[in-house]
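Thread: Modeling a multi-component assembly for a lab meeting

Hi all, long-time lurker, first post. My supervisor asked me to bring a structural picture of a complex we are working on to next week's group meeting, and I have zero experience with this. I have the sequence lines for every component (749 residues in total). Could someone generate the structure of the whole assembly? Inputs are pasted exactly as I received them:
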Amino acid sequence: MIKAYMAHIETSLPNPRSFIIKPKVFCLGPNNSLQPLEPSEKRNISEEDIPDFDLKFGETLLLSFVDVASGEYDVEVLEFDKNNECKKALEVYRIIGSVNAFFAVFHDKEKGDKLVIVRSLSEISRMLDKSAEELQAILT
Amino acid sequence: MQTVKKEEAKVNYSEFLEASVEEFEKLGEKLRPLLMPKIGEDYHVYLKSKPPLKEGETHIAFTLSVCPECKTLLFARIFEREGKVWMRKVCPQHGEIEEVYWGDYQLYKRFSEWQYDGKGISTPHVPIAAPCPFNCGLCARHKSHPALVNLVATNRCDLSCFYCFFYAEAAGYVYEPTLNHIRYMLRQARKLRPYPAIALQITGGEPTLRDDLVEIVKIAKEEGFTHVQVNTTGITLAYNPKLAIELREAGTNVVYMSFDGVTPFTNPKNHWEIPYTLEALRKAKMPAVLVPTLINGYNTHEIWDMIRFGLKHIDIVRGVNFQPVSLVGRMPRKEREKQRITIPDAIIEIEKQSDGQVSREDWYPVPTVAPISHFVEALTGEPKLELTTHFACGAATYIFLDEDGSIIPITRFVDVKGFMEFLEEKAEDLKEGKSRARVLLEVGWKLRKFIDTSKAPKRLKKGRKLINLLYNILVKHDYSSLGEFHYNTLFVGMMHFQDLYNHDAARVQRCDIHYVTPDGRLVPFCSFNVMPDIYRDRVQKAYGISMKKWLELKGMEKPIIAYKYRRNIKKLISGEIYRKGYEGIINVNSIPYEEHVKASQKFGILVVE
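Re: Modeling a multi-component assembly
Sure thing. I ran the full set together rather than chain by chain. Output:
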């Protein structure tokens, strides 16, 4: 199962920062075609999501649930059915606020679902063999 | 070789005494996942509700903390009440826990303006698999790289202080990594990026009990540590000055020495030996930092005298680094209130006892100096050591001892705030591509704006001397200028290590003082020591060796307790070095011999004649 996060976060002391996090999730088809996936469930973030949340945002934004908890937040978890036939999937996050960035999480079921995190739009476009403009048009 | 029992993660260490660095690496990788804290067994998580705010309280922020009874991860509220900062958390099983977080709200507000976060760790040693702080090793969430790495060289100690549960006899095993094992651990610390560890503290137990301590210092230097300090009571060095010389020659930069007060009653650990240790260090040309643990009502009345003692020995003492007590173990609220002292409480006490010679305005939190790193990094294009701890973790100031004996804190002649803000701005200019030459010209030109030479110590007053020194330190990284600037200065610092009552995960994530563990992890100080059952003791026990086996291997016939230190007070206090060491600080003649003996014995150190 893929969990993606849609969020509005205003952290507080010791380091006040703000983030709007917008996810898009795709199934990666032949020739790296991107088929948008729809979530099967939406819910608020809970205790068991923390390691997954921290894994994705800790490495990329140095943002963990401890930071999130410090201030105001609205974090929605989007769950994508694990039974779908998608072998490779891609979570792409657009971040607006204290940091303006894109990053992506690659999922490959055949490789034991080990996550690969890619930290910039140019790296994502290189991995998908698409131009940054083409990719930006799909993602925004 | 059946050396690793999967379930209990225990090594038969006697089979590894001749093992290579590579074998320790393999072993570490195998054991590490087994030693990590486990949900349900070691900790729980309860984040369903937040602690309430009550009448008369002002909310500051939330954080995550743990229940001191059951280590359940909880929401904690940080708030102001009656001029103090508090933490409140509510455990579903153990109820509400409230604790003073910082003793002065005004200082908290001023310090909070100085938070700089680090760049994180790009080469973590453990994957993120659990919430912070139950995943320490370090993981990709961690925000600061290590400023100081601790290596426990042994858990043996020649003392048995009544409050300590760490030493070998109390633990029930000896933990003493071999030299190859130590080399592996140090390499793990050096692997960290973007900035590898460069400063090492060899600690214990009592590290000077190891016959091969000099060898360990040499290994640290070979592995690239540019700063090596030895954390000791100094007792061994008092009796063996040759060891101080050998340690210095091997590359030890400083001795970090326990020093809890100026009298036998506040410092029964090493009061009598300290003057002799300082004399040994003097001969070895080895600087010392005095490290008092502050306990409210126990030694806080001597806080200024401890600084005065440092100033008296300024030729060899480089700093006094206070550590407000971390209340380990379970303690009722009343007892905690009695013993608790926080950083601002200590700062205010120094202001009172020094009659304002060092005031609260003279102190800044540790991350204040981060702009210096940012500026040098932008200037050189190379990653630099950044001190990016949580603002509530530590504080510091520099005291200059002038020719006439007066004391001048650095803040009296340097506008620290303005200077740091200026450097941060110039670092940004460089990052944005502004001409290097132009920025340097501006730094050289505007530096004088932040310095009031008329208030500086006499030796720095002449012409542009002070400005030139600062420019050479910042821009040319000139060590002789740094040395000249620091001449006759005393660093006075505070580092408040946490406990389970005031524990704040936001502080843990920013910690820059770590322990390297025998399985190759780097664990923040306040996880390693605050939750010893799941960090320190678990991993050291796994690599430990039974007392019986250890004595057998070393060919020692008597039980380990027979090798404990016994003090000859009569001899120590009759020496000229002792009397001169405390001259002007205490009246040594006013303390009867019997009182000396009582103080030592009460603490747990036997006295012989």
